[in-house]
Amino acid sequence: MAISVIMSVYNERPEQVQQAVDSILKQTYLPREFVIVLDNPERSDLKDLLMDYDFRVEMIKLVCNPENLGLAASLNKAIELASSELIARMDADDISVTNRLEVELEALKTRDLDLISGNITYLDEQDEVVGEKSAIPEAEPLIQKILPYGSTIIHPTVLMRKTYLVSRYIQQLYAERKRTGADSFGRGMSALTDKINDVRAQSTFNRGQKYFTMAMASMRKRKLGQALAALVRAMVTSPDNCYYVINYLRLRTIWSVNGRRYRQQPSD
Question: What is the CATH topology of the domain spanning 3-118+154-185?
Answer without folding.
Answer: Spore Coat Polysaccharide Biosynthesis Protein SpsA; Chain A (3.90.550)
